[in-house]
Write a structure and sequence with these properties.
heterodimer; A: 138 residues; 32% helix; B: 78 residues; alpha+beta; two-stranded antiparallel sheet; 2 helices; globular
């Protein structure tokens, strides 16, 4: 599956392999891996919980992949996003974009990360010694 | 209509989901102003996001009792 939401960790190497899929027409693979930072808004983060809208979030990720492939003409793309409880340093998201050249791979990766933040229903809750708070409070 | 609330909003509303009788066709905006805003005092409802039947929707989207509406705070994935 080239777009997945999962609780378990992922291997960036394995995701690159999945995205490259043995093809030899790929000239550049751009990878973004998001991780849990140990601080947010001046507080020490001890853990994070990620919630999502099951069903819709998966659909939006697949749509995002299709849009990035169409818009930038890349050859393949893989997006994995984790949910559940994570600790500082843990991997959250992996985006792999394979293109004939580096430019479209970089551009597609940057575009898709920005769009993911706007269109995929996933939320972070941060836990610190002071208590818990949603990453984007209302 | 089935209404589902997520993340911070779920805590503010106090339930994860509920059924609301619209009594006919209306718009998402009318529902938000009439039903949601009065329960979310102090919240800028202009920052809320919506999905009707799992498709992102704007406030001019028509809704009926057969729909499932999801109400979201701003996303923070990635």
């Amino acid at each position: 599956m080239h777009t997945r939401i999962q609780v378990s960790d992922f291997s960036v190497d394995e995701e690159i392999k999945l995205c490259a899929d043995g093809r030899t027409d790929i000239g550049g693979i751009a990878v973004f891996c998001g991780t849990v930072r140990d601080n947010a808004r001046g507080k020490q983060v001890v853990k994070m919980e990620l919630a999502h809208y099951g069903g819709m979030a998966e659909k939006q990720l697949a749509r995002l992949r299709g849009e990035a492939i169409r818009r930038f003409g890349i050859l393949n793309m893989t997006i994995v996003h984790r949910v559940g409880e994570l600790k500082p340093g843990d991997q959250i998201v992996c985006m792999v974009c394979a293109g004939a050249h580096r430019k479209e791979a970089f551009d597609a990766c940057a575009f898709a990360m920005e769009e993911l933040k706007k269109t995929v229903p996933i939320w972070k809750k941060e836990f610190s010694a002071d208590g818990e708070s949603w990453a984007d409070t209302l | 209509m089935k209404v589902i609330y997520f993340a911070h909003l779920r805590e503010l509303i106090g339930v994860g989901e509920e059924r609301v009788d619209l009594g006919g066709r209306t718009t998402l905006g009318a529902f938000v102003n009439g039903h949601l805003a009065p329960r979310l005092k102090g919240v800028d409802t202009g920052r809320l996001l919506y999905a009707v039947n799992e498709e992102l929707a704007k406030t001019d989207c028509p809704i009926t009792d057969d729909d499932t509406l999801a109400v979201f705070p701003p996303f923070s994935g990635g």
